[in-house]
Amino acid sequence: MEVLRPNGPTGNSSNSMPPVKSPDGIVLFGTLTDPDLLQIVLGAVADAQPVVLQDHAVFTAAGESFPLLLPSVGDQAKGLLLEGLTAQQVARLDYYEAPYGYALQPVVLADGRGAQVYRPTGDQYSKGAEWCLADWQRSQGAMTREAAHEIMGMFGQTTLSALQGKLGSIRSRAQSRVNARAERIPNALRQGAGRDAVTLEAQNRPYSRFFAMDELSLRHPRFDGGEQLIHREVFVSVDAAVVLPYDPLRDTVLLIEQFRAAPFARGDMNPWGLEAIAGRIDGGETPEMSARREAFEEAGITLKELLPAANYYPSPGALMEYLYCYIGLADLPPEVAGIGGLPSEGEDIRSLVVPFGDLMSALRSGEVQNGPLLICAMFLERERERLRSAASGA
User: Fold this and answer.
1) Which of 146, 345, 347, 381 is catalytic?
2) Which CATH number fits domain 3-133: 3.10.490.10, 3.40.50.980, 3.40.190.290, 3.40.50.300?
């Protein structure tokens, strides 16, 4: 067991291990040292004292955004000691940490007090870059706090195994809410009173997996000066990025073709459709990061400049999804076409490189039935000559 020394005097310099007392505190290193996140998880303001753990440091788990406490000779890991927690609060902490494979393990404070710290229960994580709370708060903090509200709302209702399968969708939904709050959209023509004028009377979520369904009762002002109570069902999806790759020197675009279940359910005689590259924005990602990631996953290409085309709700009457659409400049020789997608996500994607004129012919014939591709193609038609001139140096 490691020895934790509180900030301040270093305590006894003897090499002997101090006597162990009953563990009555939990030491946190990393995301939960963010006071707002900790309050959400605990359900209360924490009584926390600064401590350090000698010969340890906090690193980012490789490929993840959360921290990993590891031995590091000569370093000091700064953390917070929580004391006087109720059994319910400890259970809430356990519920939040367990889906990541973290559980409490014993440590000993320099004054002999026993404590516990959350560590991985196996060797599933490897060491990444040095952890920085301020960097995490800037890039991940708002999304993680938003996700924590949904996670802790499931405490006592959803099993840990079920929660673990929902984490990706929860984080993506949280990122969507963060995006929505951050956007500043003009209001030159609209006369609606704004979000603060809407009262949420009731909310129920009867279904939640990759997508979710919400039943809402809402009261909002009418344009005639009155107000009304409405009941609506909302299909809870997440923000997504769409990108149409374009090679201005070759004047070609990259399209993808794949099977879609929704057209099949409608009865469409050919449920394989032409689309632009698209995918949901994961928790902690920007739309631009998602567009570049999806381009590589679906078609194996690396994008250069991203040109914003349009941001919009495809079906705001019932669908929460919000799309960020781009034209992605890229090198598109014929040989980049092929088969792609992630088998782990059940993707079977054919990419094809076609002249811009063939894309517009497919729009006119009705073969393109995908809304985001239609919008991206029309935007590209408007900007095409400018992009070609810039690429050729004319």
Assistant:
1) 345
2) 3.10.490.10
